[in-house]
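Please, structure for the following, as tokens.
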Amino acid sequence: MKILKYLFLLLLLSLVALTVFVATQKGIFSVERSKVINSPKATVYNYVNDFRNYEDFESWAVEDSSLKFTFPSKTSGSGGSFYWSGEEGEGNAVTVKTKDGESIEQKMKYDGTEADVTWTFKDTLAGKTKVTWKAKGTMSFLFKIYAALNGGSDKVIGTIYEKSLVNIDKNLDYETKTYAIQVNGVVKKTETPYIKQTFTSEISKINKNARIVIPKLIHFSETNSLSTNGKPFIIYHTYDTAKGLAKISICLPINKEISISAGSDILSGKLNSFDAVKTTLKGDYSHTNEAIAKTTAYINNEKIFPELGWSHLEILTASKLDVKSPSKLITEIYFPIKPKVTAAPVTTPDYQSGTETNPSTTNTAAEQTTTTPNTTTQKPAVKKPVTPKPVTPAAAPPAKTEEDSEF
């Protein structure tokens, strides 16, 4: 009995000693891990910048089936956030600052543990990206005990970061390589009234700008009781790959033409109907250049004449606002072309009757019987020579004129 008492006292003293030891330890931690990701920098940045993807790559989220995630309307960029809860606790994260394509700064809280988190992205050889993930913060008392029993904060948090970086690489390798491009051919794009914002943008930042502008257009339409009529689209007035710049209009289609008072940064317009070569890209935006190249090759091979007044149109059928996975994005690209001109019919004179006929449209007797049941009896030929009348060439049909547009 005395032995059990001594063992109990020894265990109690050990717990007290451990508690005192943990309590006297600094609660400050600093952890850093890096990995080269086999994907372009812009793709990696956009993936990490959207909190919706964290449940797919954070190792603790992947391994804990009890976790439930809550995503507000804004999950990417400065002010983006998300929340989680599970059997082991709850927490939240918020993005406080971003430098486009270069870095992301966040604040994270988890059951009393708080951390300042920084992501940095650097280009490497062969289009890969070096990602560095850093965290500095203070541990709660329970987390200090857990870390002390499991090799320290660097090992505990560092292991989570290492596994998560591997998941990012694996997920993006699949997401960026899973895509399809189909040149659909020549189509007729119908006219569309819309509201828009027009500006010049770096080509590499167009999709980021679209994620900012489109919600503004949607809010404007809702505030003014406008009915939308399709998916947002981008008009490329110019597309200068040498300078990396494009003049664009980010548009939201509406069901009728409207007038907007002067002074608004949102304007209205109408896209007139036009002939185009359509191409559908299913997958990450990084494949847009390949889609454009295939469309250009199709236009050249089919000897189609492009309309050079403006560049092209992209409809964001399934955008980053709709889906989180890059492989599920859908973009329809329309390159304007000149409509085919039908040649005017050539006429030849019938010197016997003094009239003009079109050989290409003259029917046989059987065809005449079929198409014209009530035929008249043909007059007998006049023996007297007929002086041929002067023939006036048939006037060509008036050329079609395109509707006036901003292009």
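The mean pLDDT is 83. The first strand starts at residue 28 and ends at 37.
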